[in-house]
Automatic annotation (TrEMBL):
Pfam families: NAD_binding_10
Residue span, NAD(P)-binding domain: 8-189
Database matches in InterPro entries: NAD(P)-bd_dom, NAD(P)-bd_dom_sf, Polyketide_Oxido-like
SUPFAM superfamilies, sorted: NAD(P)-binding Rossmann-fold domains
Lineage: Bacteria, Bacillati, Actinomycetota, Actinomycetes, Kitasatosporales
Organism from which the protein derives: Streptomyces phaeochromogenes
Domain of life: Bacteria
Name of the protein this chain belongs to: SDR family oxidoreductase
Amino acid sequence: MNLTVLAASGQTGIALTRQALRRGHTVTAIARDPEKIALPDSPNLRKVAGDVNDAASIAAVMDGDSVVLSALGTDRAGTLLTGARAVVVAGPRRVIWLGAYGTGKSAQVAGEGAGMLAKVLGDRLPDKVEADNTVLAAGGTVFHAGMLADGPESPRRRTVGLESGPPFDLGAKVSRETVAAAMLDEAEAPGFPGAVALPLAE
């Protein structure tokens, strides 16, 4: 498949890009500074500059056949919603978006821990929720991951819907490699279009 990875220079974006290439896909990797996409050159990898605050730069590398996987994250409120709108307006075939477990549609399922997360996120929480909803309204899939960690892909990983979500636990971490694998599974065989999916380590 021809995949587009947004925020490809971050840790999760690198994992997505690396795994996609390993699975035999062709990848357009987008970052504000493509030089920071720390992966060796490959015939199947195209590194391009793009900034979600410049919607035209995003639209320039996407079309109706694009399958977009976003690892966009930020410490500044407003960026996620701006990014979601830029991607949706570009009109890709599918969007697979990374969000946070315990926010928005998964808050009730996550239970009491979601309140703690809301305090940590502060003014970034509405931004996350609105970005997720923008992607879902366009028929995309939003992955609500727990606390991200380094480490290998979990051999017992699974992806479930909100109805099977566990209580939110700050100590129950999931590796970025596990999350990336789950997002790529969704790109290859859609199971949660227009819905929130939960990537679990076991």
